[in-house]
Amino acid sequence: MAVAKELINDILIGTRAIGHSISPFIIAEMSGNHNQSLERALSIVEAAAKSGAHALKLQTYTADTITLNVEENEFYISDAKSPWKGQSLYKLYQQAYTPWAWHKPIFDRCKELGLICFSTPFDETAVDFLEDLGVPAYKIASFENIHLPLIRKAALTKKPLIISTGMATLSELDDAITAARGAGCDDIILLKCTSTYPATPDNTNILTIPHMRELFNVQVGLSDHTLGIGAAIASVAFGATVIEKHFTLRRADGGVDSAFSMESEEMKLLVTESERAWQSLGTVSYGPTVKEKASLQYRRSLYVAENMKDGDRLTRENLRIVRPGLGLPPKYYEIFLGKQIKRDVKKGTPVTWDLI
After folding, report:
1. Cys-Cys link to 236, which of 72, 124, 277, 285 (CB 3.0-4.6 A)?
2. What is the pTM of this model?
């Protein structure tokens, strides 16, 4: 298993660096939220750009490249908890897929608006198609992270590879990373992912993020299917460099992924708060920061609390621990109690060693 501990370099996707030296890379996942309307898809692109997301991601497949046209047994979704209950896999993917003819206009609109656009291929023909469009990176979905031929195909392009880890065991992740590296891909990002829709915070396990980073020596982020931004913001504290969220115009419009997708205002909040979370990481630091030094004067310290004459003794009445902080620290209080002073002092004089 890959365990070498090396410096994890920033990775460039398009013109955007990704790594611990910069705030998290925010991906708006369109998925099937276009509801089979190119006009709506382009509106999602515009909304993602206005929200401040850095990238928009598509999914590239057809129903025939992802499953078989069978409507019974394991090809039929009967799980009562599934948002897609009552559909066959084939019909679900017919409804959710992004027509390949739409990819270029979507890519072009992203470019106009300054959004990085890339996609998740679901078979080798999708990689060939996306190469013709000049994608800057590839994403491997959780359900495909055991599809080693697909991973090798994408890795052979030498472009950055983002792999979601939903359901994968350590052994399966090692297989995926070994396949990618063996095919010549050096820029790999893993995304901690829980493959339930929606996912719940208590089943998200973001403590896995630093563990995966140490184990595989790669950047790690979060592909988040929970509602809200809490899990995503928390992931930044554990070193997430990428956050991916499904994105739609309005959940009320419906669609295959609408129930666990973000709207524009939520995405804006995620972009803002993830950057603040990243800024707050800083370094391991003790003592006053440069900006805190001005506040030191408002700490407590030892002060003379009454007018006193040379030879008077310090007592609990005339020696106080108060603000501001220009006297000696409070830890010396007991040492000064009972001592005679060497000069006259006024109330409000900070205590110094030459007072006794």
Report:
1. 277
2. 0.89
